[in-house]
Design a protein that fits this description.
- This protein has one domain.
- By secondary structure, the chain is mainly α.
- It is elongated, with a radius of gyration of 19 Å.
- Helix 1 runs antiparallel to helix 2, helix 1 packs parallel to helix 3 and helix 2 runs antiparallel to helix 3.
Length: about 100
């Protein structure tokens, strides 16, 4: 599998994870960014023998967006905990084991 395609797949997966798991996809967004940077560098150095710069760019963008969402989610949690607005106590209506 080529680096540009792998970066796009990792970027889309990290974007979905970032949106639906409270930002946990932000870490895998860093993987997409790394794969995209490596892929674009290899494409530039290949003198036209390798293609896929658009795929690598899309992987870079989706990875960056997922990483930003992950960082924002972490920032919101930290702010909620510091300000005392986070309800970390167990729900009294749920039965204990």
């Amino acid at each position: 599998m080529s680096y540009p395609l792998a970066s796009l797949i990792a970027g889309v997966i990290s974007l979905v994870l970032a949106l639906f798991t409270c930002g946990f996809g932000g870490l895998s967004g860093l993987v997409a960014i790394g794969l995209a940077a490596t892929g674009r560098r290899r494409i530039r150095n290949s003198a036209g023998s390798e293609a896929g710069d658009g795929l690598a760019l899309a992987g870079l963008i989706t990875g960056a967006v997922a990483t930003a969402i992950g960082l924002l989610a972490v920032a919101f949690v930290v702010i909620a905990v510091i300000s005392g607005n986070a309800d970390l106590a167990p729900d009294p209506m749920t039965p204990s084991r």
